[in-house]
């Protein structure tokens, strides 16, 4: 009978170690813990949260201030974009539009060739 080479490298020990001593039951020698009993506190009176003004009325309609701020914000954003617009940006947009048009033309050509 041949021995496996892996067995030769390992001493003759069982694969799973056996427990050395049986353990005592979990409740066997436990002492009670001294603890103080705390009575539950009385529930605090519920107070409504403080009023926080919102951008909408109780009926769900936006307030005039909210609408004004939103319009002013969009206007400021548009003005900022116009200030950033330069000749380089316009040239890049033209190149992008040309590339998109060439891509659409090529796609249409391929569709015609495939008969779609």
From TrEMBL:
Protein's recorded name: PspA domain-containing protein
Organism per entry: Pseudonocardia xishanensis
Segments of this protein annotated with the region Disordered: 1-35
Domain of life of the source: Bacteria
